[in-house]
Specification:
single chain; 475 residues; alpha+beta; Phosphorylase Kinase, domain 1; Transferase(Phosphotransferase), domain 1; Recoverin, domain 1; six-stranded mixed β-sheet; two-stranded antiparallel sheet; 20 helices; 12 strands; calcium-dependent protein serine/threonine kinase activity
Length: 475
Amino acid sequence: MDAQIDQQMKIKKAHFINSSIKTNIKKDYKFIKEIGAGGFGVVFETEQKSTGIKRAIKAIAKDRVVDKESFKNELLILRKIDHPNILKMYEVYETEKTVYLVTEMCEGGELFYYITKTQHLTEMQAAKIMRQIFTAVAYLHEHKIVHRDLKPENFLLKNKEDESSIKMIDFGLARFFREDEVMTQPNGSLFYIAPEIIKGQYSYEVDYWSLGVILYVMMCGQPPFPGRNPQETIKNIQKGIFTFSKAGFKGAKDLIQKLLVMEPKRRFTAKQAYNHPWVQQQVSHELMNLRLHDDAIKGLEKMINAQQMKKTMLLYLATFIPENEVTSLRQLFVSLDKDGNGMISLDEMIEGLTGFKNMKHKNMDRNFVTQLFKAMDIDQSGQVDYSEFIAAFLVCPQFQNERFIEEQFKRIDQDNSGRISKNELMDIFHTDTISIKDLDIEELIKQADLNKDGEIDYQEFMILLRDRFADQIKH
């Protein structure tokens, strides 16, 4: 039965994003201050009462949402995406008049203001920022999502004065696309729109043009197609002729010229841009001192034979773990994701893990890494997503923060009984796209329920995560 359950339940990070209808959000979150406002509503800095973790909450007035289908589409996209450089959404609360989106808190402000304040970004700083933006866009396009409004205002710095963790935001104009689809609706922000949007027929390649404009703005401090008024700007974009207002930055110039190409099909893709020598030089610099220790690999071995309940709980923890707890793992993920598409393939994992020079692990060969890859690919998609990657390492003691684990246990244990029941476990799967039967949930509980009382207490939960022997518990 266990093997059958493992095959049936293709669990993803998206399944843990809670949607609470008509729940009082102030029971769970303390609202600290307003940090932004717009036509959609207001953004607040808040604190999760159960954990003390800061979150941003976007309060959207339903009567201000003109296009209800587009708004639903935005929520669907936010649930689906799983990338270290795209803003993470945790929960959705809904009342009669308001929708609240709970996301990670970014304290560094807009990339636009960071560029303006810094005035003269070095090439290294620009490459560091663009590497993150390129991989985020490559990831979206792999999942057939076009953003359609890429600009520095739609990227945030996770931390103040720190360009090492950039987050893409605002999917209001984003949509799913088909490879051969032609879009006609005019979208985007004036200085960043591609010439084919002005013509009225375009596809996902408009994002690549916007990437070229963003890079140009970073290096030159102004847009490549300025104008004294919107009409003049549009004419200049349609001509597609630009010059560089500054000398130097040869590598960046070459990449800009490969992105700001009038013919959409001839533009560099985000993946090609990520793999441009100017960007790869920065990747090498960032990962120069990265090490993978034997203890981590020994811990990963536990994933190979892990049951579905253990994988489910690890992925649940990975969905909510604060980013500062897994900084080294994010760097390792970047090092393995050679093509920059925001996912790790089997070939990338084999090449990456067997290539670590300091590894002494006796089993670090193609067969071992293949087994490890299959175990890490929890949703059996053929790729290891970011949260799956983090989940696999949370099996290792050095990445387990007991306070965080206890907080998440209490979060699942809604009635504060000290035990997770069948209904409480069922409640963490917040999605209509996964079919979980009562029998499946019962089987999951059996995999951790050592005293066979039909529920999981905290000690059993920790034994499940830490892989201690079941006979350590005597009842």
